[in-house]
């Protein structure tokens, strides 16, 4: 059996230093990918200047962050990034977060800031990974397959796909950010259409202290068919709500849950309201840095117009993000694929998690 030092050396050597083994409070290993700090202006001038907020934690700039190379398994209440195993699913947001936080200082559930930073880096480098988006294979390149999970042939073992399923096109990259299972993200929530998030990657900041932003997800249509989940219009990035896709939950009332939603076939094609243009430039840049808004102004061009991924929202009640797409997402999957219509409590056989580490 390899000891810790031997395992660490082997992983470092095989990955050219891009990957590292990190151990948690129980000594359980996780394969992590080192993401070096980069500046916003080096990605796109519309994003602003200085380090992407993923590399700033409570105002302190970090030279690197570490992201799980694989979608997590959960062992003794600890989320572990390991290859060749079936990713954990059927886990609530809070349990996914706890499985990462319980690992010790610096460990956390991957945040939306971190997801957005990696996605923007990929887009700048002209590469969008594929993945298991069609029951074990890529819908866009059907010859690309992964190893099926024994009890669910649609799902694949972590990292078992080709290099095109890694974020940087190498086997040292992050696997399965697109497809296989959706991933809970921390660090952002939607409450009655308004976005709340830490101003940087302050992953330990209590949720009750997250500031309310001036960014809203409006809808082009109001409540529709109340007999089930129905697409009731498009999402519009705005500074206000003019239409809820469903009647908002009264204080102390029961969330209607799985009723109407707004949906954009592509995130990159999401409209920005004229009223959004009047917000301070820094606020509008935050929306793009988060990969919530695809552009700075209503009349402007998308920062990366060819970005793959759909956008879903229920702008009533409290909603938590899942990203990337699943094994049945098809053309809707992608780095920008974002669903903001689940509450924090659902468990689903296609939703999992990924740990991250910053210290």
Brief synopsis:
The chain contains four helices and 22 strands.
Distance between the termini: 29 Å
Structural class: alpha+beta
Q: Tell me the number of strands.
A: 22
Secondary-structure element string: HEEEEEEEHEHEEEEEEEEEHEEEEE
Radius of gyration, whole Å: 19 Å
* Unreliable stretches: none
- Shape descriptor reads globular
Number of helices: 4
Described by strand count, sense and barrel closure, the largest sheet is:
11 strands, mixed
The amount of helix comes to 10-25%
Kindly state the mean pLDDT as a whole number? 93
β-strand percent reads: 15-25%
Structural notes for this entry:
This protein is 12% helix and 23% strand. It has 359 residues and is an alpha+beta fold. It has a domain at 186-341. The longest helix has 13 residues, at 112-124.
Question: What are the defining features of this structure?
Answer:
359 residues, alpha+beta, 11-stranded mixed beta sheet, 12% helix, 23% strand, globular
Chart the SSEs and their pairings:
Blueprint: H1 4-15, E1 19-23, E2 29-36, E3 56-57, E4 60-61, E5 64-68, E6 73-75, E7 78-80, H2 93-101, E8 107-109, H3 112-124, E9 148-149, E10 152-156, E11 182-184, E12 189-191, E13 194-196, E14 212-219, E15 235-238, E16 262-264, E17 271-272, H4 281-289, E18 311-313, E19 318-323, E20 338-342, E21 351-352, E22 355-357
Parallel strand pairs: 11-21, 15-17, 18-20
Antiparallel strand pairs: 1-2, 2-5, 3-4, 5-22, 6-7, 8-22, 9-10, 11-19, 12-13, 12-19, 13-14, 14-15, 16-18, 19-20
């Amino acid at each position: 059996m390899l000891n810790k030092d031997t395992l660490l050396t082997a992983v470092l050597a095989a990955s050219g230093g891009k990957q590292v083994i990190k151990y948690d409070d129980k000594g359980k290993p996780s394969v992590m990918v080192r993401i070096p700090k980069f500046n916003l202006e080096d990605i796109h001038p519309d994003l602003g200047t200085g380090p992407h907020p993923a590399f700033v934690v409570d105002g302190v700039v970090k030279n690197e962050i570490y992201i799980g190379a694989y979608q997590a398994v959960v062992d003794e209440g600890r989320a572990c990034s390991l290859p060749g195993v079936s990713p954990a699913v059927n886990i609530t947001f809070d349990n996914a977060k706890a499985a990462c936080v319980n690992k010790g200082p610096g460990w956390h559930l991957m945040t939306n800031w971190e997801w957005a930073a990696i996605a923007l880096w990929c887009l700048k480098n002209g590469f969008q990974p594929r993945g298991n988006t069609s029951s074990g294979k890529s819908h866009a390149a059907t010859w690309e397959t992964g190893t099926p999970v024994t009890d669910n042939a649609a799902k694949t073992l972590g990292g078992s796909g080709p290099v095109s399923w890694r974020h940087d096109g190498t086997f040292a990259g992050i696997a399965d950010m697109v497809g296989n299972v959706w991933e809970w993200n921390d660090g952002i929530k939607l409450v009655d259409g308004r976005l709340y998030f830490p101003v940087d990657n302050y992953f330990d900041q209590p949720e009750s202290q997250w500031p309310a932003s001036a960014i809203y997800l409006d809808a082009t249509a109001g409540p529709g068919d109340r007999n089930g989940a129905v697409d009731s219009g498009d999402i519009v990035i705005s500074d206000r709500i003019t239409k809820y896709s469903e009647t908002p939950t009264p204080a102390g009332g029961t969330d209607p849950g799985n009723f109407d939603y707004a949906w954009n076939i592509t995130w990159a094609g999401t409209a920005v309201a004229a009223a959004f243009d009047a917000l301070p430039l820094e606020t509008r840049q935050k929306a793009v840095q988060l990969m919530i808004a695809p552009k700075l102004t209503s009349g402007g061009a998308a920062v990366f117009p060819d970005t793959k991924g759909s956008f879903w929202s229920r702008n009533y009640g409290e909603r938590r993000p899942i990203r990337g797409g699943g094994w049945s997402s098809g053309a809707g999957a992608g780095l920008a694929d974002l669903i903001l219509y689940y509450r924090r409590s659902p468990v689903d056989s296609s939703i999992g998690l990924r740990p991250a580490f910053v210290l």
